[in-house]
Amino acid sequence: MTINKWLALSWLNLIRNGRRSLISGGVIAFGSAALLLSIGYVSATFEGLRESTIQGGLGHLQIAAHNGFDDPRAEAISAAQAQQLEQQLQAMPEVRLTTRRILFEGLASSGDVTIAVMGRGVDIDQERKISLFTPIVEGRNLSGQDSGWQAVIGDRLARNLGVSVGDSLTLLTNTRYQGINAIDVTIKGINRSGIPELDERSVMISLAAASLLTDSDQVSRLVVGLYETANTDLIADRLQADTSISVQRWIDLFPFYGAVVNLYHSIFGMMGGIILVVVFLSVSNSMLMAFMERVNESGTLRAFGFSRGRVIGLFSAEGWLLGALGASAGLEIGLLLMLLINQASIPMPPPPGRSVGYPLVLNVEVLAVPAILAAMMLCGTLAAWLPARRMTAMTITAALNHY
Amino acid sequence: MNSPLLQASGLRKHFDQGDNRIDALQGIDLCLEAGAMVAITGHSGSGKSTLLNIIGTLETPDAGELVLWGNPVRWSNRSADVRQREQLREQGLGFIFQNFNLNPALTALENVSLPLLLGNDSRRQREQKAAAMLERVGLGERLHHRPGQLSGGQQQRVAVARALVRQPRLLLADEPTANLDSQSTSLLLELLAQLNRDLGTAMLFSSHDERLLATVPRQYHLQDGRIQTCHQPETSA
Fold it and tell me: CA of A215: how far to CAs of A153, A173, A174, A186, in Å?
């Protein structure tokens, strides 16, 4: 009740000085909207990069035999152990799917041209569920109903080999027992991951074809897809109890993500800081000008018996209210802009290391809303407190005679 | 015997203006009883406003003592002493300023309610008291007008209502008619005399306005920081 009457007075001063309040509130609103949009953009960028990476074939977790990630000569996972691990994983409610991969390095020859490639044999049906973001740009993806040995290759590889869909390709690699083996495959589709280095060397064939090619039923990687990315650490911790295997999270397999996040955090952290400083200085300046016109008012209040602290509190409350109102308006405008931008599907150029653009998407970061509100309320309060403190530092008679 | 409402003795105050020292007050002794109506007269720069500011505890004297309704005023900047002066102003002093000093953003009712915020009244009680006081000063029809919508005389009456709404023991008015035309001045003077009679509030004016001085029974003439003469035609203190 006591607080209410002081806030009510601050509110009256605020709304009756409409023009001044509108200018200061407008700056706060603009800053709040800018912060919300920036945070939404960064969040969407992080999420997009993370999920496109995970869904682009990386999975949330990958399991290899002990030291399998560090030593290329390490033994792969035996078929029996792979089956046991799959059963264990499928019993976990957080796990969406598991899929086997056989990785190989070798040569692809079109007859005229031979290029070193990185191949992978995949469980076609399962793989499709985890490689949503690797679009086929020509032909079709592998299918369980395929007859004969079929392959999907990267678009740059196809261009360099001079092949297209329907053409035949010879794949050559070492077998598990250090022999050399080759199979002929038909190109069924050409894909584009968006990572040029990968698209220059990528060959995907069925697990059965890879098993035949490498002359082994061992599994190089067991890829685990989860329902929620947030559960990655939880499942990784559970699996790491088994010392016969090595487990890597998507973030370990894709360290570029951490670098991007750090870079963006520093860029947008600085940008957010600059926005806050600009808002603070602008509001502080307009508050200072407004309060200098009201020095006389502060002297009058103190003549009535209002303490200096009470007068500072009264003026600071105006800043606090201005911060709250300006930020609320700015956040609403920001949310509306987000909605419009998300619906407009504005095309963005490909990010570094990618060859495919993406639509501009802004995430609504729920935690950012109260954080911006609190930051702007603090900013408004501080911007009012400083000039109010200065204003009330003069004697009452000096304040009364100030015009 | 009741103690006087105000007792000042040996009040001194000087100001430095560059290399010049101006002795605004050079030992003022003054005594005021409850319900008294007194004017401090003198030329511009004679120290009238300084004396009123010190009596109103708005300004600190260099020397001398001031006792308000039995409380010796403590002048230091220690928080307890600052608080004492704030409480004396809150509980017993009302101010009318030459330039009215109304908050232009607030209505007449809100301006008059302002000093009541320091009390424990509810909003309704504050508004009732403020409306009653505005009614008393003849502005019952102007409760929701802002200062910019009122004439100078009306604004000063709002200031009178604001000064009296807490029913102070002593009203201090520094040149209250300086910015008013003759008609507004007459109305204000009638009003103040009536409020002095009805409410029993002691009033201390500083003025050199002959129209005001004609209505005030006791006058002290201030010259060169000293009280030179005392005009007291009727009852003695």
Answer: 21, 10, 9, 20
